[in-house]
Design goal:
With 191 residues, the chain is α+β, with helices and mostly antiparallel strands. It has helices at 2-28, 34-40; strands spanning 50-52, 62-67, 71-77, 87-92, 110-116, 149-158, 161-168, 174-179, 182-188.
Amino acid sequence: MRRLGTAATALVLAAAGLMTAAGSAGAASAPVGTATSAKACSTAWGSGAKSATDANAKPLKNITTSRSACYDRMVFDISGADGKIGYHVGYVDAFHQDGSGDLIPVKGGAILQIFVSAPSFDPATGKQSYAGKAGKSLPGVDITGYKTFKDTKFGASFEGQTQVGLGTRAKLPFRVSQSGHELIVDVAHSW
């Protein structure tokens, strides 16, 4: 009887070993990078408003966009800015031009309103430094084929700050960061 119990235990252990090996082989045959991609695209940024109250007197020079595997990116070039750049970024139900309150339609499932503490003109000369026009798409920005960005609109340059409306596919997580004289807004492709 004792030999039968030992033999049964050996069979169970052998079967468990085979099942583990089969499970490992199955896991290895899954597409390479599947788990890595999900981890690499971790977006624990949240979708709540983000702001920094630092002021900047330097004018906005340009706005550009780009895409990555995990997010779409908008970059505000404020050449000459030294130190922190102020901003307020958050989702809104409707995009209203700063100063006038006029409604500016923005396409997409959600609207991300971006205020950057940089006027679109040189405060010393009054000369326009960024060619944005109220209610129009951002000049030179083509978001055709982007996964998250659906529309861009210039709002205004009012009281030392520039306002932009960014239409997104949905209310997705975003982050705001600064690299040198550039303010960067990344909006994730998914939760």
